[in-house]
Fold this protein.
Amino acid sequence: MNSDNLWYLFAAYGIIWLAVFGYVVMLVSRQRAMRRDIDALKKELKK
Amino acid sequence: MLRLKILLVASTLLMLVALFMVFVSVPTDAGQGVIQRIFYFHVPVAWVAFFAFFITFVAGIVYLTNRSQKWDMIASASAEIGLVFTTLILITGSIWARPVWGVWWTWDARLTASLVLWLIYLSYFIIRSYISDEDRRARFAAVVGIIGFVDVPVVALSIQLSRTQHPPAMIFQGGLAGSMSMLATLLVSVAAFTVLYALLMEVRVRIKKDEREIKKLKEACADE
């Protein structure tokens, strides 16, 4: 019973951390892509 | 950038302290055993979701008052974080329910109201994705964000308002007051997740600003 419950406990914390980490990685990569687009568009405008 | 770094360091440190307290220092609950430790992250996750939807609610009202896109950016950024955390409430709640109640899900008042909350804010983003006009999208989303927030007190008070299997809010009923370390662990976790929310908001709003800048630059390129 107790070892089963430990599995549930680690599953809950694991899912929280995976979700938070995944969300942060997604946000950071999206922001990097945006910055690249902004730089490219600014260069295009300067031409 | 400095604010972002401060928030990143603060949330990392607070999370490490919270994890230490949850897994090392806090005593095991006599009634539920180790599974009760889910509570130290499940409750702060719920707090962040409710707080995020409150910010969406306030930003929606301010947007409808002054029609500034800045408030729509804040409202939608906060709603997205709220939706992510509501998903985590439902998942961690189900994981807790399985060993304690013997089922992953039951149509209990608290659980059903939480699912409705998730669906309301999912529809908030579906509505946003279907409307291309910026002002119209912001107006409709603000209305959904304001009306949708009505479900937050329903979720919070569902334990008092109806017969439910969900455990009561022990912090308000003296259940945790007897164990100062349990209360301290919960409060540190709440602080850690609140700082994490601030960090995510900072990044999400920056992305929204970048999206607007890209749109303006593309318009400028098209004009030339």
About this structure: The CA atoms of residues 40 and 187 of chain B lie 9 Å apart. Chain B touches chain A through 32 residues (CB under 8 Å). Chain B has one domain: 2-27+36-223.
